[in-house]
Amino acid sequence: MGITLFLMSKKGLAVLNCLIENAYLKDIDAVIVGTDKNVINDYSEEIVELCKKEKLTFYYRTENFTVKSAYNIAVSWRWLIDLPDNKKLIVLHDSILPKYRGFAPLVNALKNGEQYIGVTALFASEAYDTGDIICNEKIEVQYPITIADAISKISTLYQRIVLDIFKEIKENSSLEATAQDESKASYSLWLDEQDYKIDWKKEASYIERFVNATGYPYKGAQTTLKNESITVKKVKEIQDVEIENRDVGKTIFLKEGKPVVVCEKGLLLIEEASYNSTNKSIFPLKVFRNRFE
């Protein structure tokens, strides 16, 4: 049979471990490893170490390699994969397609408070994430939830889907797929540095989801306090009060040296935050009058 894997992130590592544990080691032709400097840990080192341990052929994405497999699977892959016409590429995408086509779908789904998150396996197409769907899996979300916890949950879905694909290819040498319903399609935009900035004009419930969705392994939610950049790591929405002059970003209460910040709707207690310049905690705050921008 033989399948080549294009892997990155904790999800890629989970898939590789699962295939090895389920006796599919000999069915892996090669592993192509991606690296990503935009996250704190891209798990490329762990993937490489596992390949070495199991004596799997592997290449870094930037190296020269030739794909010989009829079927290829990409997990957490961010780059174009150019294959001959007789080679098929299966992409695993962090959403329940056709919703959230594109970039950072899991982050954006969590920010938006979606009831379900999931994974879709589809055949690659010229227009991204529009190919025929092989299968998908979803789970219900209970908020609050961090991005790290969400990744762990959907990593299980990745493992289950890839195992099913390996089994189907091995038994039948083919995969069935269904066209997407274009009337239900939506898109998810890529993220840059500005997308990590907290907008205090949003509701407290949204900002809580935002902080949780952009935390580790991402760089974390950003704001400014007295002209110093800080990373907000943990927050909690608390009961709102009537404010006659609602000026968002200002501290309304100080609880044991930790600020309660006014949002467009609702209040937010900052429970954990650090200065980017020193990585030291901003707490306890000794001054009551603080504005977060």
UniProtKB/TrEMBL annotation:
<dbReference type="Pfam" id="PF00551">
    <property type="entry name" value="Formyl_trans_N"/>
</dbReference>
<dbReference type="InterPro" id="IPR011034">
    <property type="entry name" value="Formyl_transferase-like_C_sf"/>
</dbReference>
<feature type="domain" description="Formyl transferase N-terminal">
    <location>
        <begin position="87"/>
        <end position="149"/>
    </location>
</feature>
<dbReference type="InterPro" id="IPR002376">
    <property type="entry name" value="Formyl_transf_N"/>
</dbReference>
<dbReference type="InterPro" id="IPR036477">
    <property type="entry name" value="Formyl_transf_N_sf"/>
</dbReference>
<protein>
    <submittedName>
        <fullName>Methionyl-tRNA formyltransferase</fullName>
    </submittedName>
</protein>
<keyword id="KW-0808">Transferase</keyword>
<dbReference type="GO" id="GO:0005829">
    <property type="term" value="C:cytosol"/>
</dbReference>
<dbReference type="Pfam" id="PF02911">
    <property type="entry name" value="Formyl_trans_C"/>
</dbReference>
<dbReference type="GO" id="GO:0004479">
    <property type="term" value="F:methionyl-tRNA formyltransferase activity"/>
</dbReference>
<dbReference type="InterPro" id="IPR005793">
    <property type="entry name" value="Formyl_trans_C"/>
</dbReference>
<feature type="domain" description="Formyl transferase C-terminal">
    <location>
        <begin position="192"/>
        <end position="274"/>
    </location>
</feature>
